[in-house]
């Protein structure tokens, strides 16, 4: 039997075709149309509307960004009994509160759990997470 027969289970579903690559999206009209729109935005326009605030990587959907964050930047937002918002690290027991809790948690995760050190001593090559630590270290070279 031919696959394009009228008895085919796909015959009552609307096909949507990408104008660029001619990929066909089948299914119920609203979902197929949304899938085509998402495909076009991400594959052909290369739009990345969602940016991870922890590392700056961009993603095409909020779902993919959140998936990335759960995998790489684990922290949990909670509200204490007194109403204070906390960011608790998912790798250890450390927590931060107040309006700067997210950037503080970002620095904590990058420094402690990912060992990111972007500040390099030009004299000896030793690396540091904080610029202030590098500056303190560099003063030691001047005293020698």
Question: In a few lines, what is going on in this structure?
Answer:
With 144 residues, this protein is α+β, with helices and mostly antiparallel strands.
Structure description:
The protein has 144 residues and is an alpha+beta fold. It folds into three domains: 12-47; 51-113, no CATH class; 115-144, Double Stranded RNA Binding Domain (2-Layer Sandwich), CATH 3.30.160. It has helices spanning 29-44, 62-72, 101-113, 131-142, and strands at residues 16-17, 24-25, 50-51, 58-59, 75-79, 85-89, 95-97, 119-120, 127-128. The strands form four sheets. The chain has a three-stranded antiparallel sheet, covered by helices on one side. A hairpin with a 6-residue loop joins strand 1 (16-17) and strand 2. The protein is elongated, with a radius of gyration of 25 Å. The N and C termini lie far apart (87 Å). The relative contact order is 0.07.
Helix content: 25-40%
* Poorly predicted spans: 1-12
Largest sheet: spatial strand order: 5-6-7
Count of helices?
4
The main sheet comes to:
3 strands, antiparallel
Number of domains: 3
C-alpha termini separation: 87 Å
Which shape, going by the Cα principal axes? elongated
What is the total tally of β strands? 9
The percentage of residues in β strands lies in 15-25%
Q: Calculate Rg over CA atoms.
A: 25 Å
Category by helix and strand content: alpha+beta
Overall mean confidence score, pLDDT: 81
Strand/helix succession:
EEHEEHEEEHEEH
């Amino acid at each position: 039997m031919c696959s394009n027969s009228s008895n085919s289970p796909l015959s009552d579903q609307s096909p949507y075709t990408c104008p660029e690559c001619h990929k066909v999206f089948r299914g119920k009209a609203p979902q197929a149309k949304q899938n085509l729109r998402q495909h076009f935005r991400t594959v052909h326009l290369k739009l990345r509307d969602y940016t991870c605030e922890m590392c700056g990587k961009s993603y095409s959907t909020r779902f993919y960004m959140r998936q990335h964050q759960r995998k790489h930047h684990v922290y949990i937002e909670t509200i204490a009994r007194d109403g204070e918002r906390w960011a608790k690290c998912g790798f250890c027991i450390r927590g931060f509160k107040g309006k700067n809790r997210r950037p503080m948690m970002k620095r904590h995760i990058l420094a402690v759990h990912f060992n990111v050190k972007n500040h390099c001593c030009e004299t000896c090559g030793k690396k540091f997470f904080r610029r202030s630590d590098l500056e303190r270290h560099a003063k030691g070279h001047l005293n020698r």
